[in-house]
C-alpha cells in the first residue's frame, strides 16, 4: 500500500508541476495545449501538487 501511495503521490506532484508551468506560460509543451497561459490551471496544478505531497508524506511515515 505504501508503494502505491508513493507512486500516485509522485505522479500527482509531477502532473501538478506541469500544470503550474503550463498555466503560467513557463512550459509550452505540448504546443497545442489549451492550458498554456490559462492561470486557473496553475491553481489546479498547485492543488494537485499539494495532494501529491500529502500522499508522499503519508507513504513515507
Amino acid at each position: 500500500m505504501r508503494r502505491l501511495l508513493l507512486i500516485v503521490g509522485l505522479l500527482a506532484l509531477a502532473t501538478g508541476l506541469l500544470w503550474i508551468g503550463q498555466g503560467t506560460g513557463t512550459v509550452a509543451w505540448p504546443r497545442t495545449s489549451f492550458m498554456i497561459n490559462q492561470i486557473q490551471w496553475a491553481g489546479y496544478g498547485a492543488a494537485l501538487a499539494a495532494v501529491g505531497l500529502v500522499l508522499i508524506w503519508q507513504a513515507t511515515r
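The longest helix spans residues 2-24. The mean pLDDT is 96.
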